[in-house]
Amino acid sequence: KKFYNGVNDSLDFVTSIRTPSDDETVALLISDRHDNILMDPIARKIGDLGGATMVIDAGDDTSSGSQLEEFSLNSLNRAFKGYSKISVQGNHDSGEFVGDWLKKLGWKVLDGKIITVNGIKFLGVADPRTSSAIVRMKTGSSTMEEVSEDLASTACQDEKLSTVVVHSVTLGEQVVEKGCADIVLGGHLHRQVGPSTSFSISDRAVTTYTNGTTGGAAYA
After folding, report:
1. pTM of this prediction?
2. Is 217 exposed, middle or buried (0-12, 13-18, 19+ CB in 10 A)?
3. What is the pLDDT of residues 72-92, one digit of tens each?
4. 180: Cβ contacts below 8 Å, ≥ 6 apart
5. Are 130 and 138 contacting, i.e. CB atoms less than 8 angstroms apart?
6. How many Cα atoms are found within 13 Å in the side-chain-facing hemisphere of 21?
């Protein structure tokens, strides 16, 4: 508590966050909290400093997807009161509880269909892998390759699709290759990768970005 309170207090002296222009919508990307509720007010404060009106959650809010971890989801929801809220579930959010509870709290939980939030078109899907509170992972009923292919098929049906949100950007590889979105966002690795921009076979520029963690830094 002492450490995170210190981080939060230090944000009062931050002056280097870019100010958005009037025609820009700012979203805060979070991922891999793994029940670290002490990061929630810090993330919200950073969002406010940057002029964010939207939060994009790339998953792994919990460690096992258990109903016992409801406290983490409630904390996250309280922290981002007033924001537009979008989420996908990670491999540690195994089962139905996390997604169902976030829906109940008013989050837009991406489930393989394109939706529009604040005039921006989003697409995302839960990670098909499952993990318990330990790091070991199991493959679900669908493989990463199958889910990636289905995601790209849906993405390519709408040329105005802007943002793909997945827990691991590996799921968005075919979207990037085919050039069917502007940006693919994820987490999972517990380290930052990108942003990097590449050109698809259709010559569309697609940017990929992997967030580090929002406080859940184990195994980094």
Report:
1. 0.91
2. middle
3. 999 999 999 999 999 999 999
4. 152, 155, 156, 159, 161, 200, 204
5. yes
6. 2
